[in-house]
Amino acid sequence: MAALLQKLSQRVLLLNGATGTNLLDKGLDPGESPSLLNVRNPQVVFDIQKAYVAAGSDIILTNTFSANPNNIQKNLLKKVITSGVKIAQRAAHSRAYVFGDIGPLGELIRPYGQLGFDEAHAIFRELARVFSDVGITYFFLETFTSMIEAKAAFLAARSFSKHVFVCFSLQDNGRTIMGETPESVAVTFDALGARGIGINCTLPEVACEAVARMARVTAVPLIIKPNAGRITIKGNTMHHTLSDADMAGLYRAFVNAGASIVGGCCGTSPAYIKRLRKKSKRLKKQNIARRCLLSSPTTVITVGKKPLIVGERLNPAGSKKVRAVLVKRDYTVYGEEARAQERAGAHLLDVNAYHVDFDECTTLENALFEVLKNSSIPVFVDTQSYDAAARVLAWYPGVGVYNSIPSQTRALRRWLPMVKKYGFKAVISLVGTRIPRSVDERMTNVERALRVARAVGFPTDDLIFDPLVFSASTERQQLEHTLDVVTVLRKRNLKTVLGISNVSFGLPNRSQLNAALATAAVKNGATFLILNPLDATVMQAISGARALFDQILVGEKAPPTEGVVRTESLVESIITGNDRMSIEHAQKLIAAGTPAQDIIDKHIARALKVVGDKYEAGTFFVPDLLRAAEASQRVLALIKKYLPRARKKGKVVFATVKGDIHDIGKNIAMLIFESAGYEIIDLGKDVSCAKIMTAVKQHKPAALGLSALLTTTMPEMGHITEEMRKHGLKTKVIIGGPNVTAAYAKRIGAFGAARTVLEGLRLMEK
């Protein structure tokens, strides 16, 4: 790896181009995985990889992108991967590095799907083990669209090698289908220790802009591996809109954006790499100063620019409301309170779900699921359970803060490596062998934490010290010591956090006391303030303190401090994905005599149209669609008994075509269609043409929805429509996926093409 890193610091390295799209006519049956050619026709795989090496690729990927147990029979999978590695090694012949290529599983992971993070991690770990056993020391994870799934794959690969590179596929709006931003991806995988981060299987202009955005937040080598434009249909074949020459002409833009590893994805060939070989390999100089960054899937926060407010209301110990619903295993309050605190001006959220009678691994995970689905800001994970912390830090799609570790050598040595493994920062409580009573005792505990952090390789810049706030009713003098420590640590450029509300515990006029301490904390330079952002007195005090001590403009607009917003209608409740309010509004409508069908037609359908419009406009993403669909499903379950049996709009059969294991889009479409009143028959993924024919004959649906993510599986759609015609089946066929077009639908005889769920619903109405 040292040699590769040295080369990366000196010049641009070239990856290979597409593999799958260059193997479509090499003996694959419709919809089959190109990885199968590793055992069925290894020579054609060798020829394409050897051509890339001859063209100038410094790195080639094994032909294993789709080699996973969801796509290839288990008894054949190991052979496919092993053969793929050996073919690539033979083609490279010491002239190029060989990276083991791993793609996504094609399933949504909790909280957005049914697959658990641990299950996904186990699958990826077994794949990584096979690669490692045959000599792979570099892993390349590509075409991921979910940070949770990518994190599962990354951690699995890291079990066998430190040399893991990761790439994401973006929509035209510059985000993943989950709404994750390039900056959040870069910050998260930088913190995890990725050797390279980038974009693949994306339009060149979108990938270029994304890499430029990544370059502003990370110094890790960046990768660009775009598609050759869009897909078009000419005659009987699919083509890409950009030629190899066109793609090579974009090389300088790729490098200027910050890429140091350049390759190609769908539609590119060895001719593209050959053209790149003639280009200058001079790197663009990157001068990224190290900063402490926190992130959620959509938000990156720079620590240190101003005091950051951490919302405290997600803790059963301090909130009767949270405690009451936690007993009922109702976690929706975490989502509601998360939204309210973010709206009121919180920059981060402290999440605690401890209850003496329940398993904290379960309660904390479910609470954090709700926070993730309903808020866009990073989190403090607040637990003293090692198992619970490890469980949620493993899957959280961002860089948060673990809260907290006592400054005791044994505890620090146990906790810090785990926190680092998952890319988090750590709060260090300045409790040593006893509660500190002076500034000196607190500083002794600071030095101990710094010493242990250096010993275990934990970045000291990622430590946040809690000097301890005691109640003024009994420990008034300790407040001076606490604030003095904040001042000392600020001068040393070390970060601090204060639990503001602790000062008023057991006292009257809590808001005024909390506001007074918050003002002093801002003056002394505290980095984080844990408090109630819905307390207007405290928030206004912080704004005033910043105006006085941080030299911000007086009159800076203070954040709103309203409480939980109660949506005014069923439509608004569904749009925001508020399950509880959706049920309440539906119950009121039923009590008022509103017909159940009117609730569907005038409320649910209207809400889903707004959600669909927002999705098409790029302001809503898959999590937003799922929240709205889940709220709709709850309302439908409530009103189902009031619906006449014959009032369903009709049946729709859904299937992901043979050879394609990616059913995320299909599953979302089914949720929305069912919410709109259709009866759904789900045939699953990797479905044979024969099974689809049988289902259409049996159910006589109003429409057949076919889904394909990969360009290599799109021809199977044409095969199915041809078989439909042969069998005399006139069912409306709607094809879906990111690459389908109206022209392709017309070419294969489908009724229409839908790249979004809303387009599919519109086609149903024609």
TrEMBL record:
Domain Pterin-binding: from-to ranges: 307-566
Catalytic activity: (6S)-5-methyl-5,6,7,8-tetrahydrofolate + L-homocysteine = (6S)-5,6,7,8-tetrahydrofolate + L-methionine
Cofactor: Zn(2+); methylcob(III)alamin
Residue ranges constituting the Hcy-binding domain according to the UniProt record: 1-280
Keyword Zinc tagged: yes
Record-linked InterPro entries: Cbl-bd_cap, Cobalamin-bd, Cobalamin-bd_sf, Dihydropteroate_synth-like_sf, HCY_dom, HCY_dom_sf, Met_Synthase/Corrinoid, Meth_synthase_dom
Binding-site residues for Zn(2+), renumbered to this chain: 201, 265-266
Residues annotated as domain B12-binding N-terminal: 557-651
GO biological process, one term: tetrahydrofolate metabolic process
GO molecular function, one term: metal ion binding
Recorded metabolic or biological pathway in which this protein acts: Amino-acid biosynthesis; L-methionine biosynthesis via de novo pathway; L-methionine from L-homocysteine (MetH route): step 1/1
Native organism: candidate division WOR_3 bacterium SM23_60
GO cellular component, one term: cytosol
Pfam families (UniProt xref): B12-binding, B12-binding_2, Pterin_bind, S-methyl_trans
Protein EC: 2.1.1.13
Record keywords: Amino-acid biosynthesis, Cobalamin, Cobalt, Metal-binding, Methionine biosynthesis, Methyltransferase, S-adenosyl-L-methionine, Transferase, Zinc
Family the UniProt entry places it in: Belongs to the vitamin-B12 dependent methionine synthase family.
SUPFAM superfamilies in alphabetical order: Cobalamin (vitamin B12)-binding domain, Dihydropteroate synthetase-like, Homocysteine S-methyltransferase, Methionine synthase domain
Domain of life: Bacteria
Known function: Catalyzes the transfer of a methyl group from methyl-cobalamin to homocysteine, yielding enzyme-bound cob(I)alamin and methionine. Subsequently, remethylates the cofactor using methyltetrahydrofolate.
Positions of the B12-binding domain: 649-766
Identification of the protein by name: Methionine synthase
PROSITE patterns named in the record: B12_BINDING (PS51332), B12_BINDING_NTER (PS51337), HCY (PS50970), PTERIN_BINDING (PS50972)
